[in-house]
Amino acid sequence: MSYRVIHAKLTARTAIHIGSGEGNDLTDALIRRTATGEPVIPGTALAGALRSMITRLAPRLGAQVCKALKDPPKNGQPPKNEQPKPCNCEVCCLFGDIQPTDEADSPAEASHVLIFEARPISIPAASSIRDGVGIDRASGAAARAGAVKFDLETLPAGSTFELRIELRKTTAKDEELLAAGLAEWQAGRMWLGGRVGRGLGAFKLDDLKFGERPLKKPDDLVAFLRDDRPWQAANVKVDWLSGQMATARGHVKPVSDLKDLPAMVARRWVQAEFTLQAEGPLLTNETLASVVSGFDHAPLLAEVGKWDKPILTGAGLRGVLRSHAERIARTLVTLNAPDEQSYLTRCPACDPNVSRTDGSADALALESCDSRLKWDLKRGGDEEVAAEEMCLACRLFGSTRWGSRLIVEDAPFVGGQPEYKMLDFLAIDRFTGGGSEGLKFDALVLWRPRFKVRLFLDDPQDWELGWLALVLRDLQEQWLNVGFGAAKGFGRVSVPEWTVRAGYLKDSDFPLHVKPTPETETVYQVVEMKHDDAEMQAVWLAELKKWTSAFKTEWQRENKALVPLKRDSYFEPEGRLRNLYPKEVALR
What we know:
Elements (H helix, E strand, L loop, with lengths): L1 E11 L30 H15 L9 H4 L19 H6 L17 E3 L3 E4 L5 E6 L15 E6 L5 E8 L4 H15 L3 E2 L10 E13 L3 H9 L8 E2 L3 H12 L16 E11 L2 E2 L4 H7 L17 E2 L1 H23 L3 H7 L22 H7 L16 H6 L8 E3 L2 E2 L7 E9 L6 E13 L2 E9 L3 H15 L16 E12 L12 E2 L6 E6 L3 H23 L26 H4 L2
Antiparallel strand pairs: 1-6, 1-8, 2-6, 3-6, 4-5, 7-8, 8-9, 10-17, 10-18, 11-16, 12-14, 13-17, 15-16, 18-20, 19-20
Helix pairs in contact: 1-4, 4-6, 8-12, 12-13
């Protein structure tokens, strides 16, 4: 008998929001705290994130496919008049069965691991309130009409927490699967809490130690029971993780060897890191910084009062990327639609801020998928939907009914000390030509800042990669503006440096025709391309052409799962976009 434990440190790479589900007069969403007010990451959040990752990896490592992947219960419950049946797969044996039962001789088991709540080791600054607002797709300004304004409490980047996992009666396969998930966390592919797709919750696992403490002797057992922190006295097993990964890599199965493999099983991922260089002033407007500084507009800071730590929010950058992706897709469909009906059945990008309040009303211009599913297909908010029932933008970037696999992290400032400039603005009276009374404002802007951006797309489809490649190409060629005041010339950016990494388990998962480099501490093998590697870029160019062709095929395909718009509310004479996109010109 022995006490076996895994101990490590969680370090936040970005700001984090581990929500409590409650708000107050200061914010819509508070972070989770203990009774004494100490921030904490619940063990359930840690276990859920780790289990989700391992569930997708396990079938590729020779384990059974969990029922959570092949037959997910609706609303978390089995069908009526049907008794839940234990899964008894390796993942359910490790974390506890997803459908436990108290029937006699049931194979269901309790979890073999105990994941404790993560208490803070160090919090570099007080929590702050993060603002967010939806963007109107037609005007490019804040979507005030839809009241899509929200805020939430966050902890700053650099916050560290203590992770502890205790093992009970684990098998060799249990440890292999657990190590595979922890290895992904150690590689930085870990996100926890709310708004992870919009920049928050990025973590890295550091100082991972596997320890064992013998309890066979009575004196050892008594000392263990008296010890408030028994894991600190455990004997550390050197190279436990690397040894487990060596075993796991030998068990990786190609997809062709597995039958009826669900789409959610792990296959590949793509990560892009690049420097975003502003060519002039850039302003990420934030309310709290404005109050502290005394300016009407001021940039968001990683920590309140730390003017050497401005950041570009992942939510803001994600909004820019999605808006431009939608514009590309709608333009291509509009220019290639042979007739009006073809456009109505093929529009690949809805406006997530546009919804009907009455089911008897006609469809709105670019009505959101959520609204069309609700009123036209009579789908309740808790009903499952298929990917084919969503527009392409909702499938890639997510919606209220469909989570996104694309993560855009908060981008920290890099490159020395930031430079600030104070600017004054004054609205002009159109009648007198002088200044309008009461319409003067000022701003504290960043001058030519540089930010480090990180994007991660899990299990990308070829058409998704092609679409993102078109968007990032336009970003690199300075077609997009980032931040507040684009109409005033703010936020013009370029991409001088970038690195793209693609990870996959077997060559058949991602046939790139490039020799990969195995990650020594994970089960993945990786291909990397940098901005100054001309030889590798030539190889990837052929892949990019294939991906963009896949995107063209995808948006040309009619989406028959969704009910077509009842009328041409996009181009009709009274439509709000008539002057921006005249039908006679667009379809010529």
